[in-house]
Amino acid sequence: MSHYSYIVFVPLLPLVTFLILGLFGRKYFKIHSGSVGVVSLLISTILSFYTAYQYFFIDGKTNAVFQNIIALKYTWLQFSPNVSIDMGILLDPISVMMIVIVSFISLMVHIFSLGYMKGEERLATYYAFLSLFTFSMLGLVLSSNIFQIYMFWELVGISSFLLIGFFFEKPSAVAASKKAFIVTRFADFGFLVGILILAFYSGTLDFRRLIERLTSVQSTEFIQITSATFLGVSMLTWGLILVFIGGAGKSAMFPLHIWLPDAMEGPTPVSALIHAATMVVAGVYLVARLFPVFSIDLTALQIVTWVGSFSALFAAVIACTQTDIKRVLAFSTISQIGFMMFSLGVSKYGGENGLGFTGSMFHLFTHAFFKSLLFLGAGAVIHFAHSNDIKELGGLRKLMPVTHISFLIACLAIAGIPPFSGFFSKEDILLATYQSNKLIYGIAVLTSGLTAFYMFRLYYSIFWNKEIRIQETPHGEGTFSMKAPLIILSICTVLAGFVPISSWVTSDGAPLKSHINVGFSAFPVLMAAAGILLATYLYKTQNSRPQAIASALGSLYRAAYKKFYIDEVYLFITKKIIFNGIGRPAAWIDKNIVDGFMNLLATATAKLSAMIKGLQSGKVQNYALYFFGGIIGLALLFIYVFK
Amino acid sequence: MNEISITHILFVSTALFFIGMYGLFTRRNMITMLMAIELILNSVNINFVAFNKYLYPDKLDGVFFAIFVITIAAAEAALAIAIIINLYRSHDSIDVEDASELKY
């Protein structure tokens, strides 16, 4: 439909900004690069809001069901009449929702960075990278082709790498960026193989046709992919699991979560944008994009469910023990993405059974607001107090009133206290899990309680607890450009729960009634309230109770504090097992066998030629003698052997 | 009168051939080597004429070939002497052992 073609400007404007700032920024936009970025992104955001308006309210629906619309399609690489890599724009409820989230949060982060990054030498580079990221993420969510999504997926990965390592003078930032890149790249390999499997059997790379062919049970493609097996598991399951591994890498699901806490070495607004609200939900988005296919394969869905729920609980436990503000938030992000994942996992396709899908997308939507708000609040605190260790912070509520209120709102939202947005989305998720799997429901409710506890632990530690002495900083709480995004996001966090996502974003496009069931809601809310009360009891004032509990828990506390030694396990596996078991033997083989064979050939040739070079003496009569000897030899041969 | 058998003639030509060979391999003077080559060519000529006479008396192919070889030998002698003169100019010698620069 051509009247949607203006959408191409939503991702293209950030790309243009990236090129302008990247090529000319350091020379011509040294001070104004921020404004350039903000203005172009503002236009992009307005366009995406208009898209959402047009899609959801005017012509997205046919027969009360939201349709997939190909807004633009350009065949790029044609492999065969049926298989091609296209560049296109696919509009459906989730992609429209995502462009709104991505452009809006990115805009807030751009504005916040105006104040946060003030005086930074490489400001133009920073904004160029932010624009590159925004372009890639918007391209990712709008992709109409599974290979197109893969390319943008990698672009997102590289811009994340660049931004984590933005302060490249710090060795820890360099290490973190490498870690993030390697871990996600490793997962992306699974994604690529998954794409190849799905594309091989379905014979197409186009999302719509791929989903169509792999979901109709009678189609030859479906029969082929389900009847082909590898290690006793059907190729469909393999393909989906491999795709999910890619998603789990990007979304920092256990056991590929290790890069996300380290990624907090980047500038805090970047963490808010990339490592909280947008890029890390790409994995959830990917599963949601292929959800019709996932929904017919129960094994793959089970894996999604269990990985998600385990990550949710696991990260929540770790978050309770961390003392770095951003690391607590990082683990809470892992935990919340775990919520989205298992919510997709327990969902089924279509109608009321698709509640988990809706809940997941709803949570993605609300999470983007409150988590970016939390990160930007944390950024404001770090900017003000020059510390991100909660042991060194405390009593900031009077010094930073705006940050304090917005942080509180975000904490209430993530804890799931009504009427803040997190409550509504978590309700959908909990209801969906309750209906399908009681064990997951138990984990989810427990995790909700833990979430409330660690978020309020963080809140009290920063804003209450001990009074710290802070030498008067000249910039105060922050510039207007830092406060404005906090205020706007706070408003969004309060109101986002009332957005009728359930009537827009559903697994099959048909609207769903929203369910708020007071009797059902009471228990999770009580859990959250209990978590908050416990945190209040332990952390509101300075006391020795947290210490006592920590020492009472002993090794369990230490294990959680050390993030359950997952990093150490990885280091052990890579350094001890892979380096010693694979790396060194491979190096030995390369040095001694591969190179050795070549050296042997060369040496043998040299030796042989040294041996026979005397034959070429330069004496004519010798040559004549050899020639004559040869003739005699041939004559004897022909006379006596070949008679 | 008794005809001389072909074996006798072949014996002469073979002896001539190997004498030429011997000369070619043992003499260092290039003119002598050229003379040795002439001996070899003449032994071949004898073979041609002999086989023509004894095996195909009504044909002349062998005789023609002998004449052809003589012509070629004349040309070859001219060429060889040109080479020898050039060698003498550059090396001040016509000893083949002195001209052994072209080696490994």
List the secondary-structure elements of chain B in sequence, H or E. Answer: HHH
Note the main sheet of chain A. Answer: 2 strands, antiparallel
Q: Largest interface, and how many residues on either side?
A: A-B, 11 and 13 residues
Strand content of chain B: under 5%
Rg of chain B (CA only): 17 Å
What is the end-to-end distance of chain B?
61 Å
Terminal residue distance of chain A? 87 Å
Per DSSP E runs of 2 or more residues, the count of β-strands of chain A stands at 6
Side by side, the strands of the main sheet of chain A go 1-2
Radius of gyration of chain A: 30 Å
Net shape of chain A? globular
Query: How many β-strand stretches of chain B?
Result: 0
Number of helices of chain A: 25
Helix content of chain A: over 70%
Number of helices of chain B: 3
Beta-strand percentage range of chain A: under 5%
- What does the largest sheet of chain B look like? none
How helix-rich are the residues of chain B, as a percent range? over 70%
- Gross morphology of chain B is elongated
Report on this model:
The complex is a heterodimer of chains A (643) and B (104). Chain A has 643 residues and is mostly helical. Helix content of chain A is 71%, strand content 4%. Chain A is globular, with a radius of gyration of 30 Å. Chain B contains 3 helices and no strands. The relative contact order of chain B is 0.12. The mean pLDDT of chain B is 90.
Highlighted features:
heterodimer, A: 643 residues, mainly alpha, two-stranded antiparallel sheet, 25 helices, B: 104 residues, 3 helices, 75% helix
